[in-house]
Model the fold of this input.
Amino acid sequence: MTTLDAARVPHPAPVRATRAHADRMVRIASTALVGGALLLVTSWWASDGGVTALGSRATALTSVGQWSGLVASVLLLVQVLLMARVPLVEGAWGQDRLVHLHRWVGFSSFTLMLAHVVLVTWGYAAGEVRQAPAMLWQLVLDSPGMPLAAAGTLALVMVVVTSLRAARRRLRYESWHLMHLYAYLGVALALPHQLWTGASFTSSPGRTLFWWTAWGATAVAVLVWRVALPLFRTLRHELVVAAVVHEAPDVVSVHLVGRDLHRMRVAPGQYFNWRFLDREGWTRANPYSLSAAPDGRSLRVTVKHAGDGSSAAARLEPGSRVAVEGPYGRLTPRVRTRRRVALIGAGVGITPLRALAEGLEYAPGEAVLLHRWTSEPLLAGELAHLAATRGLQVLDLPGRRRHPDSWLGEAPDADDTALLHHWVPDLADRDVWVCGPGPWADAVRRSCLALGVPARRVHVESFGW
Done:
């Protein structure tokens, strides 16, 4: 392992930051929109006497419960929108960041929703704890929409419980994904009672318009981008399996062909949610990244056996029909702001980076790929070909991780950050793409930041759920 040549090589095509600036504006605008909605509903709560009601125990409980319900309603809609695959939002934020925000917003909205139920019930029971269960039962039976809200709450409880880390370790990805879809049902059932009876929702035409518009826009976003568009793309492109190639004992590449693939607008580094229709369990989608740059005629994914869905990929037959959702992901050339780039991947995480190494524009010496592997390198022959024909500099990092806090395998006796600087001295002047398991990718990101790479130029996509 040697220090990489840091000499700059001129390139005829300058990198433009226009897309990065546009994405930053989208992030600012979407953050401001959510913040403005939260401030608006809080101002409505205050104008309705929410602050003055804090004087006595019973009214304070009810008032705080009403406020938590308003905020929870906004966050529930935001939670759904974060995963609605809206192209403008997806492209600006990136899927990894959206998943992180989705998880944080989800737990926050769920906590506030439970606080709303408990506090309002307690307040209606005149602050008497012993009367609260009977009051809750009365509210469920007598208030319009409350039975639906109770069912929606139970659905959300199931989603939150199965999203806890301890629960996810005991579930297959396919089972977890199926249960997670009940979040849509939970939100759909939990909110209507507020739209029908809540004073803060119905006391003026402006408020009613705001809430119905927010709820309707969220529903339309899900139906368009999670249902209609995937169905349209599946029917339009008619993807089928062309071949299945064994790359390693537990890794296969699936080659696919279809109709008008040049119109799919897919970029190297992106992934799809795949449903292979001619196999058992086809209703459950699996996310796989492209492992080759799209050429308009075919697509390829490389899959490691890690569960029921991925293991079944090895048994696919040519001609098997395929349904897709996507393309998704921001680990693409669109985030590039520098001529010089670094690609750092581990295990099957090398697959989208291999596609990037093929699809990016660079001159010899401008691109380096650090390939972390344990038993044998994946797609080593293809990476060697890119090194020979494109000038990609490939640095192999073999062996098991030397300790839990390190992202390196066999390496000299020095800390990770010092070694990364030794191998890529000009890392701070590059865009860095990272892909691999979550904890490993986080460790790589910390090393990059410690070497002065701005956070906006470290583009991470981790494998996990």
